[in-house]
Design the sequence.
C-alpha cells in the first residue's frame, strides 16, 4: 500500500474540480484497507473513503487522507433454474456489473444501467433510476466496522433502505466501510419493469413490443445519454438535490397555485420533482462563470471547466434559497459535500 502526498483528485471524481488531497492511497484488499486505517497519519489527519467519486463535491483541497476502495472481484454463489446469487466486491464498477449481468441473461439490475460509481457505494444512497432501486435486488452486504476492525454482515432490513437513503447515511454514517454486496437476480423468466414513462416511450421508438433485459438496458442507456451530461465531457455528479417529500396538505396548497406541478405519491406524503421546482424558479440553463445548471435537466449542476467547489456550492445555495422563497420547499443535497 503506497501513500502519496499532495495528490491531484481531478481524475478521481466526476465534478472536474482541481482539488488536491494531503495524502492519498488506493487499497486493493481488506488487509490493505485495515493497514490504511491503522496508519499513524490518521492520528493527526481526517480520512475520506472514496469509490468512483461520482457523488462528492470537494469544496476545498482535502486536508487528510483519501482512501480509494478498489477491492475487486465477483463470485457466483448459487445458481438455480430461477435465480442467481452474485457477490461483488466494493471496487467493481457499477455499470460494468450491470453489463456483465445482462450479458449472462441475469435480470434485475438492467434499469440501473449507466449509473456511474462503484458497487460498494451503491447501497449508501440505495441508487435508483427508471422505476427500480438497488434494494429490489439486494440480499446482503459485508462492511468493515471501523471502531473494532470486525467484518459485519447486514441484511436488507438492517440496511434500512429509503429513497436515496440507508442506515449508512444516518446512524451508520462514518462507522462502516462497505466491502461487498450480494445480489439476488433472476435467471430466466425475467419480470421486466417498463413502468417509467420515458422508458416506455423509448422502447416504442426502438420498435420493441416485448422487451427483454437487453432491450431495457439499451433503452435506459439511450434515454440517459440523451438527457444527462456525460461527466467525461462536463463535470457533474448527476442529481444535485433529492426530490423533496412534502405533506399532502402542502402539496394541495402548491397544486392549487401550480396545477401542472410534477409530483408522485410517496406513502402518505407526496414527492415533488426537484427538477421541476428548480426549472420553474428560473434556473434551467443558468450559468455563472463556469458553474451552471444543465440546460436539459435542471436538477444537474455542472462545471463547464474551471468552476471551483465553492462556486458550485454557492450556486447550489442560491437555488435552494430561491426554491424556498418561491414554493416554501426545502431542497436537500443528494451529493456529499466534502
Ligand atoms: C451523470 C451521473 C448520473 C447519476 N445518476 C444517478 C442515478 O440515476 N441514480 C442514483 O441513485 N445516483 C446517480 N448518480 C450518483 C452516483 O452515481 C451514485 O450515488 C453512486 O452510487 C456513487 O458511487 P461512487 O462510487 O462514485 O461514490 P463516491 O462519490 O465515491 O462516494 C459517495 C459517498 O459514499 C462514501 N463511500 C464511497 N465508497 C464507500 C464504501 N465502500 N463504504 C462506505 N462509504 C463509501 C463516500 O465517502 C461518499 O460519502 C449519478 C451521478 C452522475 C455523475
Sequence:
Amino acid at each position: 500500500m503506497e501513500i502519496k502526498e499532495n495528490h491531484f483528485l481531478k481524475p478521481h471524481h466526476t465534478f472536474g474540480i482541481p482539488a488536491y488531497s494531503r495524502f492519498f492511497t488506493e487499497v486493493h484488499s481488506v488487509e490493505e484497507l485495515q493497514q490504511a486505517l491503522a496508519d499513524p497519519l490518521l492520528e493527526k489527519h481526517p480520512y475520506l473513503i472514496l469509490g468512483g467519486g461520482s457523488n462528492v463535491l470537494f469544496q476545498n483541497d482535502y486536508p487528510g487522507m483519501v482512501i480509494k476502495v478498489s477491492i475487486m472481484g465477483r463470485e457466483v454463489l448459487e445458481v438455480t433454474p430461477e435465480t442467481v446469487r452474485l457477490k461483488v466486491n466494493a471496487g467493481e464498477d457499477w455499470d460494468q456489473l450491470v453489463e456483465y449481468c445482462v450479458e449472462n441473461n441475469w435480470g434485475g439490475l438492467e434499469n440501473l444501467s449507466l449509473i456511474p460509481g462503484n458497487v460498494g457505494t451503491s447501497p449508501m444512497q440505495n441508487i435508483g433510476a427508471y422505476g427500480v432501486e438497488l434494494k429490489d435486488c439486494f440480499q446482503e452486504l459485508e462492511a468493515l466496522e471501523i471502531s473494532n476492525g470486525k467484518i459485519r454482515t447486514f441484511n436488507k432490513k438492517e440496511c434500512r433502505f429509503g429513497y436515496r437513503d440507508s442506515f449508512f447515511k444516518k446512524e451508520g454514517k462514518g462507522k462502516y466501510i462497505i466491502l461487498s454486496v450480494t445480489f439476488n437476480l433472476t435467471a430466466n423468466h425475467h419480470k421486466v419493469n417498463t413502468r417509467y414513462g420515458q422508458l416506455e416511450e423509448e422502447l416504442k421508438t426502438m420498435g420493441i413490443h416485448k422487451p427483454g433485459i437487453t432491450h431495457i438496458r439499451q433503452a435506459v442507456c439511450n434515454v440517459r445519454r440523451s438527457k444527462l451530461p456525460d461527466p467525461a465531457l462536463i463535470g457533474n455528479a448527476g442529481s444535485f438535490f433529492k426530490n423533496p417529500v412534502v405533506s399532502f396538505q402542502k402539496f394541495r396548497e402548491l397544486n392549487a397555485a401550480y396545477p401542472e406541478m410534477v409530483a408522485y405519491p410517496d406513502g402518505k406524503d407526496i414527492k415533488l420533482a426537484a427538477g421541476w421546482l428548480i426549472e420553474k424558479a428560473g434556473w434551467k440553463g443558468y450559468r455563472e462563470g463556469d458553474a451552471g445548471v444543465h440546460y436539459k435537466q435542471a436538477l444537474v449542476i455542472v462545471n463547464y471547466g474551471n468552476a471551483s467547489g465553492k462556486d458550485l456550492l454557492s450556486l447550489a445555495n442560491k437555488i435552494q434559497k430561491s426554491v424556498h422563497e418561491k414554493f416554501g420547499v426545502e431542497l436537500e443535497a443528494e451529493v456529499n459535500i466534502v
Remarks:
- Helices lie at 30-37, 94-103, 156-159, 197-205, 213-227, 248-257, 274-280, 309-327.
